């Protein structure tokens, strides 16, 4: 494993450091598994003779690659996720990994989260790949409705949750979309080039478009790899993109990236109606269905930008084969719901 800020992994996850964060004596640790993706991750075995801690924890910390570490720091991803686990993980009305300790420095360069090892809690990660059905989709939408309703236009965004900011717009995303167009446009359907050219020409306006609507707390990155099941209860992990934004940021991301081609064309409006009904059951007065549909058209393109940026990074963040499969589904969704035309009209 590469060094982090000139520190080896053994120092990042030392017994002394863990003892201080966990406020319990950790006599020894053993790294069972470790790897880098968007961030560094490891499974730790603990020697805690008091028995106050589980035998294993899941750790998240800065990645080893210098360029990747700089990106995570500039995006505030580590600091934001540490804040979520320190402040919000115990109160959100959805299943999330239990936090035993979470730390970040002010700049977000150094962070460490010590979380429940979900495998040891008998949680599973067989999501859409094995569970896919419209009932599965509705179950995730129900969980979203609980999360979004709890923070719908919350006054706390001006007080104790002021750190939950709107999603950031990164100049690096523009550069990576441009790079990806050069590398892959010839092998992609026309919607890839159309959306890419529109984004490069109107990035600022499109990001403003994605902020239209009542703000709430959003997860911001709900793809299949960030979902799990605890029995029959769905849960959400990887909160590095938690933000204050319209709820359709989450719903558009999830539906565009999950629905099959046939269901995208025949069931998408009914699913939005279901989500809207669930908000009403939780005491929220949601926007009209037509407005939600329009926001869905816009936010499907937000997912596309994320996938395109990821593809530009090769295998560094996700396997290229996985990203290409995701883009195939997204292109079909964007064509089915008319995303590019809807964004042009809104601008």
How many distinct beta strands? 9
Order of helices and strands: HHEEEHHEEHHHHEEEEHHHHHH
Mean pLDDT score, rounded? 92
Main sheet attributes: strand count, strand direction, barrel closure: 5 strands, antiparallel
The N- to C-terminal Cα distance equals 46 Å
Can you characterise this structure?
The protein has 347 residues and is α+β, with helices and mostly antiparallel strands. The chain folds into two domains: 9-121, Phosphorylase Kinase, domain 1 (2-Layer Sandwich), CATH 3.30.200.20; 128-346, Alpha-Beta Complex (Aminoglycoside 3'-phosphotransferase, Chain: A, domain 2), CATH 3.90.1200. The chain is built from 14 helices and nine strands. It has helices at 9-12, 15-22, 66-75, 77-88, 128-131, 134-150, 171-184, 190-209, 248-258, 261-266, 268-281, 289-312, 320-337, 339-346; strands spanning 28-36, 40-47, 56-61, 99-104, 111-116, 215-218, 227-230, 233-236, 243-246. The strands form three sheets. The protein has a five-stranded antiparallel beta sheet with strand order 1-2-3-5-4, sandwiched between helices. Strands 6-9 form a two-stranded antiparallel ribbon. Helix 9 crosses helix 12. The mean pLDDT is 92.
């Amino acid at each position: 494993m590469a060094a982090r800020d000139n520190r080896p992994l053994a120092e990042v996850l030392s017994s002394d450091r863990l003892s201080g964060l966990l406020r319990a004596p950790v006599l020894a640790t053993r790294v069972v598994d470790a790897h880098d993706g968007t961030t560094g991750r490891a499974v730790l075995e603990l020697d805690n003779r008091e028995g106050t801690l589980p035998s294993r924890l899941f750790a998240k910390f800065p990645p080893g690659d210098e360029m990747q570490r700089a990106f995570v720091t500039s995006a505030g991803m580590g600091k934001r996720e540490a804040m979520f686990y320190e402040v919000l993980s115990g109160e959100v009305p959805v299943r999330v990994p239990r936090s035993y300790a979470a730390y970040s420095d002010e700049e977000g360069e150094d962070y460490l989260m010590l979380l429940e090892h979900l495998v040891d809690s008998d949680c599973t990660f067989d999501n859409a790949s094995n569970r896919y059905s419209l009932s599965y989709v509705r179950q995730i939408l129900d969980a979203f409705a609980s999360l979004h309703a709890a923070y719908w236009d919350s006054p706390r965004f001006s007080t104790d949750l002021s750190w939950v900011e709107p999603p950031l717009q990164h100049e690096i995303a523009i550069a990576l979309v441009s790079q990806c167009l050069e590398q892959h446009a010839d092998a992609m359907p026309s919607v890839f080039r159309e959306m890419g050219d529109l984004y490069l020409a109107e990035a600022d306006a499109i990001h403003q478009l994605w902020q239209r609507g009542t703000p709430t707390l959003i997860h911001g990155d709900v793809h299949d790899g960030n979902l799990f099941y605890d029995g029959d209860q769905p849960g959400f992990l990887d909160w590095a993109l938690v933000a204050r934004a319209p709820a359709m940021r989450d719903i558009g991301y999830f539906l565009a990236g999950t629905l099959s081609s046939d269901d995208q064309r025949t069931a998408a409006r009914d699913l939005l109606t279901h989500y809207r009904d669930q908000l009403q059951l939780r005491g929220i007065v949601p926007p009209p269905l037509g407005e939600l549909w329009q926001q869905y058209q816009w936010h499907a393109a937000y997912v596309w930008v994320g996938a395109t940026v990821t593809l530009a990074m090769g295998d560094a963040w996700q396997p290229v084969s996985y990203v290409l499969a995701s883009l195939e589904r997204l292109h079909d969704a964007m064509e089915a719901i008319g995303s590019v035309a809807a964004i042009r009209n809104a601008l």
